[in-house]
């Protein structure tokens, strides 16, 4: 904590002289945002088979048409609400859907466990998108089915959210029957097509970064009370932050589309993003990038043998993802480039649609935060839901 104080002192000078004002939407949590934009919001506690306690939000609608939204890495369910009246939650509710918003383990809303204390027990952070898929997503689906009395729900995932669905449906194929349609936004299974420059370098340097973090017994990254999140918030809420954090960082890793993320909105966003996850999550992505395969976590030879009965981790069998899948992709997405999504497309046995957004500059984050998603994305989503559910 003393390091935190030192950094705070150093950065506070600049902070005091250049802090931009954070709008109300940057300070409200999910429920606060939902209420502000006229929605009814209920909170549900979901306990997973491996003991994680998750918070799921519901904006109630027609009980026969439940839709589950799952966010990406270092993000939370806020992603689907933060555009206020122009957000996906509002669009779905207007169309009568019963909207359920997930928050995965490790995020501020779901940072609890029956036995482990995330601040003390390293075991808590022993997860990647693998466990998120196997245990979080399955628990959420079963919970919604139970509450609505339905036999199937529709699902929408973004980025890591899609990886988690593919994991679940390939390893526990019985879940295919519980999903009417999976709308996969900026989907990720094959990562090695990624062209996002600073991210590529970070992936290559990751084994060293990982070692360093492990030395300091650091398992959580970017969580609300971590040093790195604290620094990020100070730097990226500065009046120059749009130049540094958006033009300099966010757009260069996700693809340039400045029109869709205006400065005023950035100052709301920085109150919600990034959110916490485990370093194992990054490690798993680093591995599938290096191996050029969508496969399970690589521990080491002995552990792999004990866990998988194989010295190398098995690939996820995408041919078992038999639920209907619609892939929706952006031509300027540097995290999940078209080439990788096309490869994924060839592996999915029940692909119903492959949609490239009609916006040349559509990047990885427009799917969540774009200013005009009402025009180029939501009509696709509502059409897909209408057509296939
Ligand atoms: C959101 O839209 C509704 C109606 O469409 C409007 O009444 C309300 O004022 C808007 N809320 C905000 C905060 O802009
Ligand atoms: C992490 O989880 C894996 C797989 O569930 C398990 O084999 C391993 O022992 C765990 N590691 C730690 C440090 O708890
Ligand atoms: C939901 O779960 C409860 C308790 O686990 C059970 O009693 C109930 O029958 C379930 N309802 C449905 C519709 O499956
Ligand atoms: C482990 O793999 C070997 C060889 O691939 C196979 O013969 C054996 O039956 C497997 N053991 C288990 C427990 O699945």
TrEMBL record:
Pfam families, per the entry: Abhydrolase_1
Keywords, ordered alphabetically: Glycoprotein, Hydrolase, Lipid degradation, Lipid metabolism, Signal
Segment forming the signal sequence: 1-18
Annotated AB hydrolase-1 domain residues: 66-370
Molecular function via GO: hydrolase activity, acting on ester bonds
InterPro entries noted in UniProt: AB_hydrolase_1, AB_hydrolase_fold, Lipase_euk
Residues annotated as the enzyme's active site: 159, 333, 364
SUPFAM superfamilies referenced in this protein's UniProt entry, alphabetically: alpha/beta-Hydrolases
Top-level taxon of origin: Eukaryota
Any one biological process term the GO annotation gives: lipid catabolic process
Assigned protein family: Belongs to the AB hydrolase superfamily. Lipase family.
Protein name: Lipase
Protein species of origin: Diatraea saccharalis
Organism lineage: Eukaryota, Metazoa, Ecdysozoa, Arthropoda, Hexapoda
